[in-house]
Automatic annotation (TrEMBL):
This is Aminotransferase class I/classII large domain-containing protein. It comes from Capsicum baccatum. PANTHER family: AMINOTRANSFERASE TAT2-RELATED, TYROSINE AMINOTRANSFERASE. One of its GO terms (molecular function) is pyridoxal phosphate binding. Pfam families: Aminotran_1_2. Belongs to the class-I pyridoxal-phosphate-dependent aminotransferase family. The keyword Lyase does not apply. The lineage of its organism: Eukaryota, Viridiplantae, Streptophyta, Embryophyta, Tracheophyta.
Length: 355
């Protein structure tokens, strides 16, 4: 049977290996280890990067009203242009330009159904035979999987926990060759919860310019920055339009809601969320210091995740981070993610938990 499958090229070993430790596949495994419903303990799910189901992080009323109005208007029932509705791109350009030294044009904006789909588009546009791309370690695992799909070689540069998870720029320079197309910078960081300073961002930009490589800026959590560091302005690769002509488009109704959503969502909505996250981080960080087998190398400043070091010498019958997470789910009904899901293969000690 395997020979027949290999004939058609279905057995992509690299992609299969990446998907084995994807966040979704690991979450499914951990959920299977939760005890049955007759267990009276609450199930605490800290493994999701999307907390919208939690009441205190509910979607803003402005977003709900915007979607409702778009549906009721019946103006957005058909297909949108491949790059997105002009009115939507214009509102996004104006919104993003508030934090930039220059004015963005609607032509600078390309829409995708979601962040993962945007990653897919960028990877596909940049891919060429023999090319490689630089990804952080720890990092967001979807980049690994998409690189495998696009036949891009992945080269890992380290983030330095002792320096607030800054990029190890020396390792970046050592990795680059003539086939390196880009470096991915996630800020605020996922899964480390770090936020780069403006000085470090400038160093990254200067290094990329010197090496002649693109910077892919992933800023999904740009509004979740609750300390003094800076999340830099959104950038997007050019020359995407041709690919978008034959890829999936965002729902037209959602596009129709965006201008109203951007205009009506108050700053208080984001500041309230950041205050909740900051309180959670302070409580979490304090508690971790009291647990001998856990070490938090750097207190998070943004996003909603943190990397924790697990000292296995304090534990009996646990051999790695995956086993720790599995037993925690089964015995305490708490879901966190092992470091394996974040490309953190340096040791079996990394645990990513969403706070």
């Amino acid at each position: 049977m395997e020979k027949k499958l290999s004939k058609w090229g279905f057995n992509n070993g690299d992609l299969k290996e990446k998907s084995l430790f994807s966040i979704r596949s690991v979450l499914e495994m951990l959920m299977e280890n939760l005890k049955e419903d007759d267990d009276n303990r609450s199930k605490i799910h800290l493994g999701r990067g999307d907390p919208s189901a939690i009441p205190c992080f509910r979607t803003s009323s402005a977003a709900e009203d915007a979607i409702y109005s778009a549906v009721k208007s019946a103006k957005f029932n058909g297909y949108a242009p491949a790059v997105g509705l002009y009115s939507t791109r214009r509102s996004i350009a104006e919104y993003l330009s508030h934090d930039l030294p220059h004015q963005l044009s609607p032509d600078d904006i390309f829409l995708a159904p979601g962040a993962n789909q945007a990653i897919e588009v960028v990877m596909s546009v940049l891919a060429r035979p023999g090319a490689n791309i630089l990804l952080s370690r720890p990092g967001y695992p979807f980049y690994e999987a998409r690189a495998a799909c696009s036949n891009l070689e992945v080269r890992h540069f380290d983030l330095l926990p002792e320096k607030g998870w800054e990029v190890d720029l020396e390792s970046v320079e050592a990795l680059v060759d003539d086939n390196t197309i880009a470096i991915v910078i996630i800020n605020p960081g996922n899964p480390c919860g770090n936020v780069f300073t403006s000085e470090h961002l400038q160093e990254i930009a200067e290094t990329a310019k010197k090496l002649g490589i693109l910077v892919i800026a992933d800023e999904v959590y740009s509004h979740l920055c609750f300390e003094s560091s800076i999340a830099f302005a959104f950038q997007i690769a050019e020359c995407l339009q041709d690919y978008l002509e034959y890829s999936a488009n965002p729902a037209t109704i959602v596009q129709g809601a965006v201008p109203h959503l951007l205009e009506k969502t108050s700053k208080d909505f984001f500041s309230n969320i950041n205050n909740i996250l900051k309180e959670a981080v302070e409580a979490f960080y304090t508690k971790v210091q009291e647990i001998p087998c856990l070490t938090c190398p750097y207190k998070p400043e943004g996003a909603m995740c943190v990397m924790i070091k697990l000292n296995l010498s304090f534990l009996e019958g646990i051999n790695d981070d995956m086993e720790f997470c599995t037993k925690l789910a089964h015995e305490e009904s708490v879901i966190i993610l092992p470091g394996k899901t974040s490309s953190f293969f340096v040791a079996q000690e990394g645990i990513c938990t969403h706070s």
